[in-house]
Amino acid sequence: MQAAARGLRRAWAAPGSAALSCWLPQALQLRGSHWETSLLAFRASLPMRAQPKKKKKVDVRREQAQKDRMKKKIKKLEKAAPELIPIEDFETPLKFSDNSRVRSLPPLSFEETERRVLLMKKWSAYKQNQDRAEKQAIRSLVEAQQEALKELRLESEELYQAAIRRDEGLFPFERDGPNYTPPLPGYDPPEGKCIDITKVYTQ
């Protein structure tokens, strides 16, 4: 054994691995397959392994008492009716249902009343004229379209059928309308604060 250890130290001290490769078959027995541990590897003996854990003593009465308590809780929950969560959006708060709470408006003068009446009359006449003009424009466009389709049909039936074919890509139609104020370039809007006052119900 001492000769083998001495030969192994000489092999490791050599500059190359040729000495080790030529010495191993003569001094040490090689492993038969890759399932066996190499003779040069570390080996763990029994004292180095962890000690087996001690099994805890099971108290049968204590476990049975826990199961019984759990069964009682389950039966109690099954007998009790489920608590419905109220929807506060459908309930008017009591402070808003007070009939004596009436908003008092200042009385209008005679001149202000007459001014508002005349303004409403002018606005009604303006909207009536606008509606009449829009209807007339639509009527004239439809008549011009029908006249153009009649002339097109006299020229070519194929073009007429292509003109009255439904456009499948027309809808959904999206369009961005004008804004009240133009956007400011480089404007970074501040983030608003939100306080969550939602009530949490536990059943």
Q: How much of the polypeptide forms β-strand, as a percent range?
A: under 5%
Structural class: mainly alpha
Tell me the major beta sheet: none
Q: How does the overall form come out from the CA principal axes?
A: extended
What is the residue-mean pLDDT, rounded to a whole number? 76
Report on this structure:
This protein is an all-alpha fold. The protein has helices spanning 2-13, 18-27, 60-79, 110-155, 157-163. The longest helix is centred in the middle third of the chain and has 46 residues, at 110-155. The chain is extended and about 100 Å long. 47% of the residues lie in helices and 0% in strands.
How would you briefly describe this protein structure?
It is built from 5 helices and no strands. It has helices at 2-13, 18-27, 60-79, 110-155, 157-163.
Q: What characteristics describe this protein?
A:
203 residues, 0% strand
Q: How would the blueprint of this fold be written?
A:
Layout (H helix, E strand, L loop, with lengths): L1 H12 L4 H10 L32 H20 L30 H46 L1 H7 L40
